[in-house]
């Protein structure tokens, strides 16, 4: 199957909102959230807010009910299913939490399409309160990346994914994201990889400030419809490159790698042109 690992951010990439804000806003805790935000890290604040929800009588069922109503573009589910059907391995790297992500993915019938979800632990305790913990326990040690929030450096997660797939041969990564936290992993992608930043969102703004820092080939998208089209276009182009190189291995001893890489770039008439 295709030697492609598609890595998705979750909030505002798979779903169309930030899941933390969605739950807090829908359950009426926006004011408390805004009041406490300057006083603690976002991840700690979410655990604190879940305690507050619990003490004010909001149940797990109330949270699940809100999560099931999470806005998502109608082309996202088909896009994920198509990428999976084409043989791609799908993973999530998200600063949301496991409870929100799994609840939404199960509701959409998508949970089994993802081989790995890297996110903050989230689970219901014996009192029926949702607990949210940091992916990286910053009370023990710092992850050492000043670019990222204390609880998660997505760049380190991408490095781990790169190390694990390096053992499986020549795999390429397609990374999709929208937020500030998606910039660190974007910087770690290689020339062989593809970056799909959401246009006019924070990661795209950061990329545009200095596009030369990004080694991966950049393809922007604006909504679920364009995400689907661009993602499947990239997967198709990589697959045809693989077919060509496999055919050449069998048909000739000539080294035609030059031809293959030029052909690959021809396949992307809509590559991102970033304002300098
Ligand atoms: Mg996001
Ligand atoms: Zn980082």
UniProtKB/TrEMBL annotation:
InterPro entries: HAD-like_sf, HAD_hydro_PyrdxlP_Pase-like, HAD_sf, Pase_PHOSPHO-typ. It holds the Pfam family Put_Phosphatase. Its cofactor is Mg(2+). Coiled coil: none annotated. The keyword Hydrolase applies. Keywords: Hydrolase, Magnesium, Metal-binding. PANTHER family: LP01149P (PTHR20889:SF12), PHOSPHATASE, ORPHAN 1, 2 (PTHR20889). This is Phosphatase. It comes from Hevea brasiliensis.
């Amino acid at each position: 199957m295709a030697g492609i690992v598609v890595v998705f951010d979750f909030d505002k990439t798979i779903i169309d909102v930030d899941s933390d804000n969605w739950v807090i806003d829908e359950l009426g805790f926006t004011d408390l959230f805004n009041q406490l935000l300057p006083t603690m890290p976002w991840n700690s604040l979410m655990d604190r807010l879940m305690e507050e929800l619990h003490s004010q009588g909001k149940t797990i069922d109330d949270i699940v009910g809100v999560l099931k109503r999470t806005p998502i573009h109608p082309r996202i589910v088909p896009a994920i299913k198509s990428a999976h059907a084409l043989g791609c391995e799908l993973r999530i790297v998200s600063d949301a939490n496991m409870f929100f992500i799994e609840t939404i993915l199960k509701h959409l019938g998508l949970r089994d399409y993802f081989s790995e979800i890297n996110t903050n632990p989230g689970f219901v305790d014996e009192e029926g309160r949702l607990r949210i913990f940091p992916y990286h326990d910053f009370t023990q040690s710092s992850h050492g990346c000043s670019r990222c929030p204390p609880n998660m450096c997505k760049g380190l997660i991408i490095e781990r994914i790169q190390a694990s797939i390096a053992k499986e041969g020549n795999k390429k990564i397609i990374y999709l994201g929208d937020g500030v936290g998606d910039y660190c992993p974007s910087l770690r992608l290689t020339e062989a990889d593809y970056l799909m930043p959401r246009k006019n969102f924070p990661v795209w703004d950061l990329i545009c400030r200095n596009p030369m820092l990004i080694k991966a080939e950049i393809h922007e998208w604006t909504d679920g419809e364009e995400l689907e089209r661009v993602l499947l276009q990239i997967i198709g182009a990589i697959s045809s490159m693989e077919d060509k190189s496999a055919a050449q291995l069998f048909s000739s001893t000539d080294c035609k790698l030059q031809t293959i890489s030029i052909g690959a770039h021809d396949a992307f008439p809509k590559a991102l042109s970033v304002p300098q």
